[in-house]
Amino acid sequence: MKEKLARFMQGRYGNDQLNNFxxxxxxxxxxxxxxxxxxxxxxxxLMYYLxxxxxxxxxxxxxxxxxxKRASENxxxxxxxxxxxxxxxxxxxxxxxxxxxxxxxxxTCKQKVRVPKGKGKISIHCPxxxxxxxxxx
Length: 137
Hints:
Elements: H1 2-9, H2 17-36, H3 41-63, H4 67-80, H5 82-97, E1 101-105, E2 112-116, E3 121-125, E4 132-136
Antiparallel strand pairs: 1-2, 3-4
């Protein structure tokens, strides 16, 4: 069975970041459909058809043989969402470093400066504008 699926998918585009995003969108639409089913009939119907259209588009992209066009769609999606993804990744990085480091903003140029935690009052040097400021670490 696994070999049959592999043969069927040969030459097809497959899954990518845009498809992952569309699948998450479908799940949100599906949940909203069930939540709004008793409240607003028109809105729940809209969510039903949006979810249906989204899942059809996901499978269309997944099984497409036009690999170049699907890759260019994915690249356009990645270019449009680059700023949002960078902000999310930087926040994740800050959260991971919270136990061992403190992050301060320079009062002059607003550059973020990372210093180790637990050193008491220290003088922090901003590498961008050469300003020194004192903070507790």
